[in-house]
Amino acid sequence: MSLSGKVALVTGGSRGIGFAAAKILSENGANVAITGKDQERLEKASSEISNSFAIVADVRKTDDVKNAIKKTIGKFGRLDILVNNAGIFPRIKKLHEIEEEEWNEVLDVNLTGQFRVTKEAIPHLQKTSGSIINISSDAGLKAYQGFNADAYSATKAALIVLTKCWALEYSKDKIRVNCICPGVVDTDMTKPFVKTQKDRDFMDAERPLGRMGKPEEIAKAVLYFASDDASWTTGAILAVDGGESTK
Predict the structure, then answer these.
(1) Which domain covers residue 21, as residue numbers?
(2) In this predicted model, what pLDDT tens digit does every residue of 4-59 receive, in sequence order?
(3) What is the rounded distance in angstroms from the CA atom of residue 210 to the CA atom of residue 231?
(4) Which domain of life is it from (predicted)?
(5) Whether residue 152 lies in the annotated active site
(6) How many domains does the chain have?
(7) What are the CA-CA distances from residue 93 to residues 48, 102, 136, 141, 150 (Å)?
(8) Which pLDDT does position 188 carry in this prediction?
(9) CATH number assigned to the domain comprising residue 223
(10) Among residues 144, 152, 170, 224, which one is catalytic?
(11) How many of the other CB atoms lie within 10 Å of CB of 103?
(12) Does residue 2 lie within any of the structural domains?
C-alpha cells in the first residue's frame, strides 16, 4: 500500500485509462476523486473503486474545475496526486477539412482543460510536494502517416512540452511532473477504429510487440510516477506504446 494516506484526483476517470488509473491508485492505498461529465457512468465507476469519490465536472468549464478541486479537498483534506487524463478524439479529417469549431473543441478539452485543472490544483500540491501525471499520446511524439487528427496530435505534443515546463517551474516546491504517452489502447475511444477482426489484426501488427495496449498497462506507469519509487523522477516522458514510436 505504497500510497497509503495519499489523495489523488483523476480527470476522465469513469472509463478507459482514467478508470484503470483510479483503480490501481486506490488498490495501492490512495483515496481517489474521479471526474467526468456523465453522472451515471461516473457513479458506476466509483462504485467499482474502493475509497473513491465521484465529481461531475467538465474540464472545459472553469467553475466545474474549481468545484472539483474544492470537493476533493473538502472530502479528503488534501491533494497529493493529479492525473490529467480527460481528453477527446476528433473525427479523422485532413487539415483543410477541419472546421474551426472542431479544432477549438479539441484544444479546449485536451490542452486548456489540462491547464485549468493543473492551475487550480497547484496550490494544494505545493503543500504536499505532490505529483502530476499528464496523459499524452505517442501521437505527440511523432507524426504518423495517415493519422489525420491534427488537433489531437498538436495538443498531445503541447502537453509533452508543458510537462517539462511545469517540472522546472515547480521543482522548488518538490512537485514532480511527468508524462505518459500511450499508443493505441483497447478502450471506448479506440473502439470505432477496431470494428472488425481485420481492423484489430492491423492495429496489432503495427506495434513491434504485436498487439494493442491495455488500460491496466498505462495505469501501472501512472502508479510508478505517483509513488515514492519515482521520487527522483520529474520531467520524464514515457512512451507506453508497444514500441510504435520507435519505428
Answers:
(1) 7-186+214-246
(2) 999 999 999 999 999 999 999 999 999 999 999 999 999 999 999 999 999 999 99
(3) 32
(4) Archaea
(5) yes
(6) 1
(7) 37, 10, 20, 20, 8
(8) 85
(9) 3.40.50.720
(10) 152
(11) 16
(12) no
